């Protein structure tokens, strides 16, 4: 659980107010407009998702999808690295998922490894 909390803290530090607005917009189908107004920071957003079973220590697929459609390959790469190193779930292990085709994250990871 410590790694999970650390992961969320790390992600929170890299989400600006504008990013948060875009993330909330990307999941507007799951966050009613009135409730969205009460999410003031990224930590609130993560808590909201956890309370609705959209996010858990062993289930990060929802935020992976949101980071992908919000064009945040840097955050997506961090989540994928957490999933593969901490949870030991590789993309090859994920049979039934849209997340195995995330070129933006793969590209971002390749760039960070080569630097």
TrEMBL record:
InterPro entries: DEATH-like_dom_sf (IPR011029), DED_dom (IPR001875)
Protein origin, superkingdom: Eukaryota
PROSITE patterns in the record: DED
GO biological process, one term: regulation of apoptotic process
Domain DED intervals: 3-81
SUPFAM superfamilies: DEATH domain
Entry protein name: DED domain-containing protein
